[in-house]
Design goal:
The chain is built from 9 helices and 7 strands; from the N terminus they run ββααβββββααααααα. With 347 residues, the chain is an alpha+beta fold.
């Protein structure tokens, strides 16, 4: 990365200034408070925005409502211009969107988008995107005096820690410590396992015994299962027989009820037959009586034959009707008797 120029507007002691850097080395000189550190802080702000070391209050000139830093650098033969803005709010100073120009192509970006672009362009770790400090830049590009003193005058272990932090390799120290702990744990586990396998032969023999017992139990279980299936089959057959017997019992009950019904019908028909027979006999007796009376009347006084014939015809008609009813009753009785006999045979 080659810094070509930087423009400052309302940044600390600078109202509006453009500083150009020639090729080769550049030395910034001046009295204390002249603004040397401001230039370096502005470059860092243009690249990464607010960090733990750089805040809006530390950059924006007192009494000003806005400011900006515009930085032009060359990376891999490409000219890149980055601009970040500052705006004073009611309670704090914020970063409004800025832009990035690459070889003349402008792209508006938010503060975080500019930071992501710079990290990718410089090949810095992506994890810096969420961090408020960029130690790799701080210790390789711009190192403040106090932090440089720590590197030069601190002890060996402290310097190593700083360097590990700069290059992001402190995690490997943690990995080493964790690896030592894991190795120690594994050694303890191995010792425990060695103690546990001392009586392995005895446990194998016990396992074989258990396997034999399981095999015997499995065989017995199959036999019991077969016996259960046989008993279940017998139970099913018994249930089927019970079902058939219940059906027959139900049918017998129905037949008994039918026999009772038809028996009552037969008895009723028989009673009706007897009644009709009695009435028929009474009618015959009446006819006989009338015939006798007719004979008696013929002896003593003349008889109206026409009237007598009508009466006789009426009596004979009643007699024929009773005979017909008697025949029907006999036929019905015969049918009921046959049906009752069939039901008895079926029962």
């Amino acid at each position: 990365m080659l810094v070509k120029w930087v423009r400052l507007r309302n940044i600390r002691s600078y109202l509006s200034e453009e500083i150009r850097f020639s090729e080769g080395s550049t030395i910034l000189s001046g009295d204390i408070g002249a603004g040397k550190s401001t230039v370096l802080l502005a470059i860092e702000f243009a690249l990464f925005g607010f960090t733990n070391e750089i805040s809006g209050e530390a950059l924006l000139r007192n009494g000003k409502q806005s400011g900006s830093v515009e930085l032009c650098i060359e990376v891999d033969g490409k000219e890149v211009i980055i601009k970040r803005n500052l705006k004073r709010g009611k309670d704090s100073i914020t970063q409004p969107p800025g832009y990035v120009i690459v070889n003349g192509a402008k792209s508006d970006k938010s503060a975080d988008e500019i930071k992501a672009f710079v990290l990718q362009m410089l090949g810095y770790p992506e994890e810096y995107l969420k961090k408020k400090s960029i130690p790799l830049y701080r210790y390789t590009v711009y190192t403040p005096q106090e932090e440089m003193k720590k590197i030069l005058f601190e002890g060996r272990e402290e310097r190593l820690q700083i360097l590990r932090k700069i290059f992001g390799i402190e995690k490997y120290g943690v990995i080493r410590d964790n690896a030592i702990k894991v190795a120690s744990f594994l050694r303890e586990e191995i010792r425990g396992l060695e103690l546990r396998i001392k009586d392995l032969n005895e446990k194998n023999a016990e396992l074989e015994t258990l396997k034999n017992e399981v095999e015997i139990a499995t065989k017995r279980l199959k036999e019991i299962k077969s016996e259960i299936e046989s008993v279940e089959k017998l139970r099913k057959e018994a249930e089927d027989k019970i079902s058939v017997l219940e059906s027959k019992k139900k049918r017998a009950t129905e037949l008994e009820a039918a026999i009772k019904f038809y028996s009552e019908q037969i008895a009723e028909s028989a009673a009706q037959h007897l009644a009709k027979k009695k009435r028929s006999e009474e009618a015959k007796e009446r006819i006989s009586s009338l015939m006798k009376r007719l004979e008696d009347l013929q002896k003593f006084e003349p008889v109206d034959e026409h009237e007598l014939e009508n009466k006789l015809e009426s009596v004979l008609k009643d007699l024929r009707l009773m005979e017909g009813e008697r025949e029907k009753i006999l036929e019905r009785r015969e049918r009921l008797s046959e049906r009752a006999e069939e039901l008895k045979n079926e029962l």
